[in-house]
Amino acid sequence: MADQLAVAVLGTGIMGAAMARNLCRAGHDVRVWNRTPAKAEALAADGARVAATPAEAVTGADVVLTMLYDGPAALEAMTAAGPGLRPGAVWLQSTTAGVEAIPSMAGLARQQGLVFVDAPVLGTKGPAEKGQLVILAAGPEEARGPATPVLDAIGSRTVWLGEDGGTGAATRLKLVCNSWVLAITGGAAEALALAKGLDVDPRHFLDAVSGGGLDCGYLHVKSDAILDDDYDPSFTVVTAGKDARLIVEAGEAHGVRLDLAAANAERFRRAEAQGHGDKDMAATYFASFDA
Ligand code: NAP
User: Fold this and answer.
1) What is the Å distance from ligand 1's center to 13 Cα?
2) 34: Cβ below 6 Å to ligand 1?
3) With pLDDT > 90 as the criterion, what percentage of the chain qualifies?
4) Domain 172-288 classification at class level
5) What is the pTM of this model?
6) How far apart are CA 105 and CA 116, in angstroms?
7) Does the domain formed by 6-167 have CATH 3.40.50.720?
8) Whether residue 39 has its Cβ less than 6 Å from ligand 1
9) I want to staple 8 with a disulfide (CB 3.0 to 4.6 A). Which of 38, 58, 63, 75 is the partner?
10) Does residue 284's CB lie within 6 angstroms of at least one atom of ligand 1?
11) Where does 98-213 have alpha helices with state H?
12) Is the CB of 129 under 6 A from ligand 1?
């Protein structure tokens, strides 16, 4: 296949595993590394080569995709990958890392001669599995050739936001989008918690707003999770809490006070302390009640 590339995926959690599978399906030579090896090993059946270290995974890679928990984890993995990195390779950095993490990642890319693309994604587990993520990307023109077959395999659309990945243009938009995602999730959880407290049938609430200006698909997705007591994670409480903190910090750094994001961060912290950290973020519902 003309566009077959050697692609390393560092981090095969909920999102990275789904992205790696789609890269395998698209015919790329995919190498995977994960801190907990079992999650990478599960991808061997899809045709991925399992690497014991980040350096082994990236050796010979045209494109390196990082999909780790946060900026420090991505930076650590890419530092460890150093001995295997090929100058000129493209680093697609898709971890939601936050604004402050961008300069050190862009600096590492410069040191290693990598072409850095700030490339966070919109969409959760389901879209990731279907290859329908929306990728927000900022990076130099020279990255687009090698990056495009990878972006096509993992997403339905790429929104290019300029040529300098080091300014964090894509990450800033990602934080804006996630502030909305977390606001809806927190709002849905609190509305359902209030319904429970007031002895209101939550289905009556969903029915009352159905089809009108207050309705929203995501309200139903998260409400169904709560009402079905099904917290199979698409986006965990722990990861959502990390993102809420990144949003608050970014606001503070730019003189913007974000009370809802701060309240959401506190709810995720409380839900995690109650033992719901690995559940879907809809479990922020539990933060409305004593453990
Ligand atoms: P996840 O399933 O929890 O996966 C996190 C990954 O990071 C795992 O591979 C984990 O390794 C690894 N990791 C964590 N700390 C590490 C460390 N210190 N060193 C090395 N590896 C480390 O999370 P996810 O949902 O796939 O999210 C991955 C990234 O995508 C996050 O930045 C998240 O904000 C972002 N994102 C998520 C979604 C979503 O809906 N889930 C959507 C868009 C963006 P182990 O397996 O060893 O723990």
Assistant:
1) 5
2) yes
3) 98
4) mainly alpha
5) 0.97
6) 8
7) yes
8) yes
9) 58
10) no
11) 102-112, 125-129, 141-154, 169-197, 202-209
12) no
